[in-house]
Amino acid sequence: MTLQAPPNRLNKDGQPRCVGVEIEFAGLPPRETAELVRTLFGGELNVVSPHRLQVEGTRWGEFGIELDTQYAHPDKALLEEQHESDSEWARQQHQRRVEFHQKTRELIGDMVTGLVPTEIVCPPVPWDELETLDSLFETLREKGAKGTDASLLYGFGLHLNPEVEQLDVEYLLAMMRAYLLLASWLRDEIKVDITREMLPHANPFHKEYALKVLDARYQPDLDTFINDYLRYNPTRNRELDLLPLFAHLRPDHPHELLHGELTKPRPTFHYRLPNAQLSQPGWGSVVEWNRWVEVEKLAANTEVLRARCDEYIAEHSKPWWARLKTKLLGPFGAA
What we know:
- The chain is of the alpha+beta class.
- 44% of the residues lie in helices and 12% in strands.
- The model is unreliable at 331-335 (pLDDT under 50).
């Protein structure tokens, strides 16, 4: 599949925009996966803990590979506790506690390997190098990695983190409007797995929020845009998660969701919708990037975007029976 160029290829600093990629899968443990990443892209292997590894110094930066459950990894807070002022006996007791904790977490990881997914968090990759990154997906497939469609139990996803072009509210509002208009089309194209539909991790936006944002009269400043998003979407579990972006833009914002351990501030959109289709030959980050680019194209076309927003508002302002009639008969159905 040919990689599609976004309408704006550079970030606000004039550099090629980057994309972070995250993928979940079964069938390969973290250590074997990390060795595979190092073979493909070079770098040095760093074993953080038995089920959490890093491949550092690749052409793009650091890859993170781990079992996707906190219970397989040592508690960072416990490991970093300071006990310099304690007695020697107390320090020894703490060290024994740490060692027991590490062994227990390693054992849990050993037991759940194969039941919970392995996750790769890729470093930011320039958008025009995603085809090179897709060699990773091909190799995972060849080595037996299993994606979403391999089992009803595999609610695995691929996340894209496209770097924003700008940080102003006009651009962000246009992108949100374009996404809301194309969300149903994206779900149809992706054929979101039923297991992922049942899980909460990539829930759609509610119609009430869509009607507010798509209305031409909605012209918020940045703080209002952020506050409205948080009021209507008090969750990380949206198909297009803006919390990392808002945490980057407003680090002092009081909302607890912007300071959660799992919300990592960064100037990107966190697009959570795609399945991990590793059993499908030719599937990879390029396929999902090309779908995402359709959102960017619509956002960049001011006239078409405005017309599509007006159509949405007009259609959803009709009484329910009129909308049902249009759905059943089409826009040119008999009166």
